[in-house]
Amino acid sequence: MEFKVNKKREIKHHLGQLPVESLYTAGIAGEKFLLGLKEGKFLANYCSDCDFVFLPPKLYCEFCFKEIPDEDWQEVENKGILVSYTFVHVDSNGNKLENPIIVGAIKMADTDTTFIHKLLDKVEDIEIGMLVEAIFAPKERRRGSINDIVGFRKVE
Length: 156
Prior knowledge:
The protein is mostly beta strands. It has one helix spanning about 25-40, and strands spanning about 40-45, 50-55, 75, 80-90, 95-110, 115-120, 130-135, 150-155. The chain has one domain. The protein contains 1 helix and 8 strands. The strands form 2 sheets. The protein has a 5-stranded antiparallel β-sheet, with no helix packed on it. A 3-stranded antiparallel β-sheet has the order 2-1-3. Strand 5 and strand 6 (about 115-120) form a beta hairpin.
């Protein structure tokens, strides 16, 4: 099959940038997780076949594809071990930030996954392996969003 343009006027072009907007829904498990954050709780769930705890939780185990029932959901501590961190120098629109944000990968207590979020400590106080805890926004400001967590801070 051959494709040929016979009328050049039918060809359209656009110079510049095309804005792309998308709507991401949290889904059933994500909504339950976010509502837990609104209450100041971390909810995880457990695949008994794989002996694996997911945070954020999943409806199905990503290893064996077993559906994870409601009774295998559990609240876990809001603490974890910092396993890695990096500096973010641009915002979500690609604009340079005046002050970089420090983002950490945290192995949350009693889970088998890492959780990515902002670190609130000064860079000179951050060490791989340190115990950190989630700092939640005041209850009246929580909306059921990942931003209900202000960030993670070293446990003294």
